[in-house]
Amino acid sequence: ETGVTQSPTHLIKTRGQQVTLRCSSQSGHNTVSWYQQALGQGPQFIFQYYREEENGRGNFPPRFSGLQFPNYSSELNVNALELDDSALYLCASSFGGSEYNEQFFGPGTRLTVL
Amino acid sequence: KQEVTQIPAALSVPEGENLVLNCSFTDSAIYNLQWFRQDPGKGLTSLLLIQSSQREQTSGRLNASLDKSSGRSTLYIAASQPGDSATYLCAVENSGYALNFGKGTSLLVTP
């Protein structure tokens, strides 16, 4: 069984640029959630995709967008990067539609915006 | 809006001690509660998940309890080891999709 993977591991961008982060869900999972974790804080929910549709969204502006593909992998896109977007971005996969909705996290992508 | 608080923020104990980490939440209408471990700069490792209808879950040296009515959960670690040093995060799900996290408890177990 393959766990959740994310790419790239680290990324450095400058303010105003755009970035795409990628996530492959765990085998058998159909739901992907994205979280942003600033230094010293708990992760904050960005959005979730269930069977290629956005299933819920946290308090993040529209410049944060996403996609889920037929194989249930996912992308997080951030436009017009700001300094405060510097954080660890975590992807989690789960089997949606069940009460036992345990989420399994990937290793994260560390984004630094200069 | 769900607020999750973890106490203490940091904890240092000698190896072999039993310890308790605390988590409280403001909205008791939860689906489940999950405890995670995070090593510095790394992703989250799921430790235990307690469904809203359950009172506790156990895995090895770890035991997590849930008191939904009072909005509290505890994570008990028995016979702590230096390898247990990490940040422990509590998260509750009460929307059907989003996890709401506390800020975590940073644990250091000294040899």
Record keyword descriptors for this entry:
heterodimer; A: mainly beta; seven-stranded mixed β-sheet; four-stranded antiparallel β-sheet; globular; B: 111 residues; mainly beta
Q: Per DSSP, what share of the residues of chain B sits in E-state strands of 2 or more residues? A: over 45%
Task: Please tell me how large the radius of gyration of chain A is.
Answer: 13 Å
Q: Which residue ranges of chain A are poorly predicted, with pLDDT under 50 across at least 5 consecutive positions?
A: none
Our measurement of the CA-to-CA distance between the termini of chain B, rounded to an integer number of angstroms, reads 41 Å
Global outline of chain B:
globular
Share of helix of chain B, binned: under 10%
The total beta strand count of chain A reads 11
Proportion of residues in β-strands of chain A: over 45%
> What structural class do helix, strand and pairing data of chain B support?
mainly beta
What is the succession of H and E elements of chain A? EEEEEEEEEEE
Parts with pLDDT < 50 across at least 5 consecutive residues of chain B:
none
Mean pLDDT of chain B: 95
Q: What is the β-strand count of chain B?
A: 11
Q: So what's the overall shape of chain A?
A: globular
Largest interface: A-B, 31 and 26 residues
* Main sheet summary of chain B: 6 strands, mixed
